[in-house]
Amino acid sequence: MMFLSNISLTSVVLSQVKFKLSAYSGLIYSLIILQVLGILFATGWSSSGTSINNISINLNISSIDSGFIFVSLLAISVGNLITTRAYRYDDFSFVATRLSSNIANCIVLLIFSCYAGVTTYFTVYLMRIFLTFNSTNEFVEGPTILDDPMNSLLTILAMIIFLWMFSSLGYIAGTLFQNHKLLFFGALVIIIMLLLTGTWIRISEIIFVENSSLLILVAKTFGIAILIFATSTAISNRLGVRV
Amino acid sequence: MSNTWMIFFIGLIPVVIGILIVLYITKKVKYKGSLRLNKIVIMIYFSLLIGVGIVYEIIPKEPIVEQLSEEQLQQLQTENEVFEEKLLKQEENKLSQKFLKEEWTHELSGNTLTLGYIGNDSYSTKVVVEWIDSTAQKIEGKVYRSHINLYGLKIEDKIPLHVAEWTGNELVIHEPVEQEFTFEQFSNELNVFQQTDTMEIRMVRGFTYIHLKVPKHIEIVDPLGLQMY
Q1: Mean pLDDT highest for which of A63-67, A95-99, A132-136, A171-175?
Q2: B12, B31, B62: best mutation site toward chain A, by most A Cβ within 10 Å?
Q3: How far apart are the first and last CA of chain A?
Q4: Is residue A25 part of a domain?
Q5: 20 to 30 A from B27, CA-CA: which of A123, B90, B120, B170?
């Protein structure tokens, strides 16, 4: 078949990415709300207390864990959301294939994860400023970005990759659900059953716990996310044309 | 239903609440608003957070409590153990003088010395008696306190000393008045990413030691068992 112009996969993907970034830009409001919730939950997220010689010592540790958990749930939700029919119909604005669509979604989710990862990391500073001016308690020295820039960057990178992986989980769940509802529930049951087995727990430990450094964990998580996206692409390529 | 499952389901409640909140927000918040406004919000929000980060780095932050590393805590613990060992062996010249808080002498009127403690935790104080050859009634005492460190926080100065007070022939050790300190700490790290076990309790619980030089003819009455042998 002959065409007047040949469009490469890259240019189609790029156009789709640009379009989707604009179309889904409204997600920022959900992100802001969840990050604010994360800040509210973060103050005294971890609290310890002990006493010695009749003196009670309490230590409140405020961390980004709560914000990260909320944003992780959002990542799963968004990953799932963009596989829904309403969002898939946006792809009809382009002469595109399922492959280009999937690659574009994968890139868009990565870009969202980057934005969400960096902003979630910095929300802790909003909390720091607030508590610095409002708390009567004394502060314990803690590492800042300037004290340990490499570790801070690594944490941000880890957050981005983890969010991307969570969005990939939402994405594969959505893809399965779109393919066949029974397939989705079947996969869910298998995963839950696997989670209850000792072997699966051991595998999870090897992947997520037994790492000599954070960088190795990040690399493993990145690999898992790629694998999930590839599986989703393979599954969605088997979808029939439904309008 | 077993307790494990009960705890599991109770633990799931915040997760379910979190999921419901996220689902509610993603459903309710309108995605396809004004594109221009969205872009402005994205830029402003990002700049705001980065700006806050920069501001926090440059503003003066005092007072700040220093936190010791695990190695430093280990060193303090070792110093405490060495001190106690030397004190028990009564090698006074080898005792670290940085632990010495006060010293005094007291003249007993009789041949009995009673040890008392007022407070909740009598185990925080240890009395070491060194018998000396003397016919006098004079008791020499030295109060030491070894390193105290809780959660790695350098707050030794904030923890008051026990007060040793003589009432006649009774040496009463008073526990400090009850106080409470709360400290705030920020962490840039995610606990979910921690690859090493950081649940280790980082505490060095020092003691108050009262070293008494007592003439051999004096009898010690110690109902609470404060003496250390």
Answers
A1: A171-175
A2: B31
A3: 25
A4: yes
A5: A123
> How many angstroms separate the CA of residue A82 from the nearest CA in chain B?
12
Torsion of CA A89, A91, A96, A102, to 10 degrees: -100
* Residues of chain B with confidence (pLDDT) below 70: 1-15, 25-33, 62-63, 192-201
Tell me, yes or no, if A138 comes closer than 8 A to chain B by beta carbon. yes
Q: pLDDT for B120-149, tens place per residue?
A: 888 889 999 999 888 888 899 999 999 999
In a domain, A107, yes or no: yes
Nearest CB to B179: which of A55, A121, A214?
A: A55
Residue ranges making up the domain that contains A33: 2-45+59-179+211-237
Give how many domains chain A has, as a whole number: 1
What is the reported pTM?
A: 0.77
**Residue A187 falls within a domain, yes or no?**
no
Name the residue ranges covered by the structural domains of chain B: 3-58, 70-228
The C-alpha of A102 sits at a distance from chain B's nearest C-alpha, in angstroms, of 21
**Adjacency order of strands within the sheet including B100-107:** B100-107, B138-145, B208-215, B125-132
A32 within a domain of the structure (yes/no): yes
